[in-house]
Amino acid sequence: MNILIALLKTSVQKAFAQDAWGIYCDALGTSCGDGKMYVAHLAVRMIDAVIYPLIGGIAVIGILWASIKMTASFGSDQGKEDAKKIIGYAVIGILFSVTGYSVVKWVCELIQMTTGGTGYCA
């Protein structure tokens, strides 16, 4: 009987437990430590996944609206000018959003480099 128990002990693998935050942080591709950083990393990931595509989508809708307005103006100078203004505002909005994203990313990485932080800049 002792031989059978010894054989069973050698064939059964050990199980290693992992904390819940580790599972979520591995899925995000970041290291969250003890879980306190999880919310910050999740916020950065959500901004990257939701906000920036939303800004681009709104700009595309604005450009499409302006092109429909220009087509529907049937050569009217006022309609063409309004459509040009809308397209200009949409392009300026895209430039501001790209510039804002770049500045925030640069400042975040600068702070991370100088303080030796864990990295909110995903």
Helix content: over 70%
Order of helices and strands: HHHH
Structure classification: mainly alpha
Regions with little confidence, pLDDT below 50 for 5+ residues: none
Mean pLDDT: 75
Please describe the biggest sheet, giving its number of strands, its sense, and whether it closes into a barrel.
Answer: none
Query: What gap, in angstroms, lies between the N and C termini?
Result: 56 Å
Beta-strand segment tally: 0
Helix segment tally = 4
Counted up, domains total 1
Based on CA atoms alone, the radius of gyration comes out at 27 Å
Globally, the shape reads elongated
The proportion of strand residues reads: under 5%
Oligomer: single chain
List the helices and strands and how they pair.
Blueprint: H1 2-11, H2 20-28, H3 38-72, H4 77-115
Describe the structure.
- The structure is a single chain.
- The protein is mostly helical and 122 residues long.
- It has one domain.
- The chain is 76% helix and 0% strand.
- Helix 2 (20-28) runs parallel beside helix 3 (38-72) and helix 3 (38-72) packs antiparallel against helix 4.
- The radius of gyration is 27 Å and the shape is elongated.
Please provide a brief summary of the model:
By secondary structure, the chain is mainly α.
